[in-house]
Amino acid sequence: MSHGLAGPTSLLQIKDLSVMVETAEGDKPILNGLNLTVEPGQTHAIMGPNGSGKSTLAKLITGLLEPDRGSIDTEGIGPRDITLLPRKPYMMNDTVYNNLVYPLRLRNIDPPPGLIDEYLDRMGLSRRRKQKARSLSGGEQQKLALLRALLFRPRLIVADEAMTALDMDSLDVFEKMILDEKKKDPVIWIVISHQMSHVRRLVSYLFFMYHGKMEVEGSLDELFSNLPSEKQSSNPHLRQYLRVYGGGTA
Ligand SMILES: Nc1ncnc2c1ncn2[C@@H]1O[C@H](COP(=O)(O)OP(=O)(O)OP(=O)(O)O)[C@@H](O)[C@H]1O
Ligand SMILES: [Mg+2]
């Protein structure tokens, strides 16, 4: 397995990343010497308890935050090919349709009408094309943001709790769409989520963070309960996390 090694095909490589914040007791790290390597065509999850540093890492990867130490190498993926999908996506004060095609227009790409119709239809948003995007419900806004990302095809997508408001049917449709798109394009997906059943369906490789450090990484099988108990992760923090969030019998 090439994960964890600095192989020549890896597309995102993070080395020794640290971020400090000022506190009453002096400077404290919120990310501490973190390493991570991900490859194209893979879907990854970053898991970890509240406050473990996942969103901070997401902002660093997508260029919204500068580290105090360490490096992030995206090997030729430019800033316009990297997208952060937050829990509350940004919507321009414009229609659903214009929000959807905005990134394409920025890049002088003609919106493909058939594909847009199909996407809106699959997400149940066809009727809402002309509605102001900011008047959509929370779940509808998340759907629009996900469709927008699928449509303009960035090469690296970090979804930070970006599907938390989707109902089960919509989640199901999206998982299929993401997996279909992934077959066509070697896009890197990094999904941050506490929804374990969703992570298990979508993701092939997992990173587990705890207190600003990357504590464990491995394939779905390695970290979840598909293995006999003696071979499951021995990391106590991960086992506790899976007990709470339901990662099987760990
Ligand atoms: N500017 C700041 N000053 C002090 N502490 C900060 C600052 N920014 C972030 N933190 C702390 O850093 C830690 C990591 O925050 P982060 O948002 O990355 O966590 P997270 O893993 O995304 O958590 P969640 O699952 O709740 O979304 C938190 O404990 C947060 O309070
Ligand atoms: Mg977060």
Stretches where pLDDT is under 50 for at least 5 consecutive residues are: 1-8
- Round the mean pLDDT to the nearest integer and report it: 88
List the helices and strands in order.
EEEHEEHHHEHEHEEHH
Largest sheet: 6 strands, mixed
Beta strand count:
9
Beta-strand content estimate: 15-25%
Number of helices: 8
Explain the overall architecture.
This protein is an alpha/beta fold and 250 residues long. It has a domain at 12-89 and 155-245: Rossmann fold. The chain is built from 8 helices and 9 strands. The chain has helices at residues 54-61, 96-106, 113-122, 138-152, 168-184, 196-202, 220-223, 236-245; strands at 12-23, 26-38, 43-47, 69-73, 82-85, 156-160, 188-192, 205-210, 213-219. It has a 6-stranded mixed beta sheet with strand order 5-6-7-3-8-9, with helices on both faces. It has a 3-stranded antiparallel beta sheet with strand order 2-1-4. Strand 6 (156-160), helix 5 and strand 7 form a beta-alpha-beta unit. Helix 2 (96-106) runs parallel beside helix 4 (138-152). The protein is globular and about 50 Å long. Bound molecules: adenosine-5'-triphosphate (ATP) and magnesium ion. Magnesium ion is lined by residues 54-55, 160.
